[in-house]
Design goal:
alpha/beta, Nucleotidyltransferase, domain 5, 2 domains, 9 helices, 12 strands
């Protein structure tokens, strides 16, 4: 059995998974982000301990995190849960926990889960996409995660899409994440005169009802989606792309969005499957557990 932990900005989810990929136990707690790094650390440790106790045996644990561990310093970097940045998360958790531990970016965990037994199963190279509060990605080759030399493999959300675009927390302007995340879609709608009370889901619904302002925002969103993913395909040429995160539920991504990718990709036609995830919100935590393979336990 393996434990998977998905450390999110608002919640921390944990599961115990068996050798057949079946979730035996599941538990979710709030992320004490306002209380800082130490509180998050202790909450993760308690969750792992409680799952291990319920399983009745020692289990290796995989943890999916926002951001990644720096290959230079060994400390967390690039996390939008800002209090994690610069912290020795892996070492601190190892000091608190008994189980063997592995850590990966949560978008990588999503990609691994969907490549192994989700929508990307059977494809040689899978690019997994997260589009929600932020935009992230992960690369899986023949069932093996490819984090990259600097642990930034798949981070398409911080490619600059529009150089005069909105400020990004990473210090750049016009990153993909600032334009096609949920907050990015809402902010674009607001900049063009939309009601500031409306968020991404509201805008999608208004556009479906024929609202002109919302539809214009959706057209910009779909065009940006196409340009951003065409760049990924031009570089990786993956066998399949699997979409995840809250915005993956926008049906227009799989027809109009795909048409926009085809407009910009460097090829005579687009044959890359653009697939919706199978495991939904569970993909991240399942992928965290799958950082350990059964033959390694």
């Amino acid at each position: 059995m393996r434990i998977g932990i998905d450390l999110g900005g608002t919640k921390i989810e944990g599961i115990v998974m068996d050798s057949d990929g079946i979730e035996l136990l599941q538990k979710r707690v709030d992320t004490p982000q306002s209380e800082g790094y130490r509180a998050i650390l202790n909450t993760v440790a308690r969750l792992v301990e409680s799952l291990e106790a319920a399983a009745g045996t020692r289990c290796p644990a995989g943890i999916g995190t926002p951001g990644a561990i720096s290959a230079v310093t060994g400390r967390m970097k690039n996390s939008n849960t800002m209090c994690l940045n610069g912290q020795p998360l892996f070492e601190d958790l190892q000091g608190l926990l008994n189980p063997p531990l592995r850590i990966a970016n949560n978008a990588n965990c999503f990609a691994l889960s969907e490549a192994l037994d989700g929508a990307g199963k059977g494809y040689g190279m899978v690019f997994g996409v997260i589009m929600g509060t932020g935009v992230g990605g992960g690369i899986v080759f023949n069932g093996q995660l490819h984090p990259g030399r600097q642990h930034i493999g798949g981070e398409w959300g911080h490619n600059i899409l529009e150089s005069n675009g909105p400020d990004c927390y990473c210090g750049q302007k016009g990153c993909v994440e600032t334009l096609i995340s949920g907050p990015g879609l809402a902010a674009d709608y607001h900049r063009h005169g939309g009601n500031r009370a409306f968020q991404a889901n509201d805008i999608v619904a208004l556009a479906a009802q024929g609202d002109v302002l919302a539809e214009a925002a959706m057209q910009r969103f779909l065009d940006r989606f196409g340009r951003a993913l065409a760049t990924v395909i031009n570089i990786l040429d993956p066998d399949a792309i699997v979409l995840g995160g809250g915005l993956s539920n926008i049906g227009r991504l799989y027809n109009e969005g795909r048409d926009n990718i085809a407009r910009y990709v460097f090829n005579d036609q687009l044959t890359t499957p653009i697939l919706k995830n199978i495991h939904g919100d569970s993909s991240g935590v399942r992928g965290a557990a799958q950082l350990w393979r059964c033959d390694e336990i």
